[in-house]
Amino acid sequence: MSKLAGWISILFDSSVLSLFVFPAIGWRAAGWAGVAWAFVALLILTGIPLAYILIGIRSGWVSDMELSKREQRPRFILVSFSSDLLGLLILWLGGAPHQIWVLALIYASLGVDNVHNFELLEDQPAHGRRERFLGPADSHIWAGCLVDAPKPASGCLGAPAAA
Fold first, then answer.
1. Cβ-based neighbour number of residue 107 at 10 Å
2. What is the arithmetic mean of pLDDT over 145-150?
3. Cβ–Cβ < 8 Å for 84, 108
4. Interatomic CA distance for residues 1 and 98, integer angstroms
5. Whether this model's pTM surpasses 0.90
6. Counting beta carbons within 10 angstroms of the beta carbon of residue 67, is it exposed (0 to 12), middle (13 to 18) or buried (19 or more)?
7. What confidence score (pLDDT) does residue 146 get?
């Protein structure tokens, strides 16, 4: 039963689900160009942290994919947060479709939200850092950003609308 639970956890991890969600949103937003931007986002947002873990396991400074040793998590969080910021910056400056930028922002904010509740890090493996469902109010706000706003600096995020 624990192997089944492990596979379910892996299959429904947001990093795995994002492999389908990002390209679908990209296609809807801007066709093949949107799909390309989706893969750029995934490469940075998910690829860099995954590379950190895989290289760390191979080099011996990371114990396993779950980062089950608590003392290994702060560096991973720094790498993950840095890759989130880098991804958002590249998407914004590169002119990615707004929907991809907002989706990347949602993806990044889920990680920040769980890090904000730092006590979660003591009882939960690092892969669970993005496994939080948005509440109804949050998802309504983010959905409005995906649909209504033309640019990342628009009013949907509380910033003044871009000229």
1. 22
2. 52
3. yes
4. 42
5. no
6. buried
7. 55
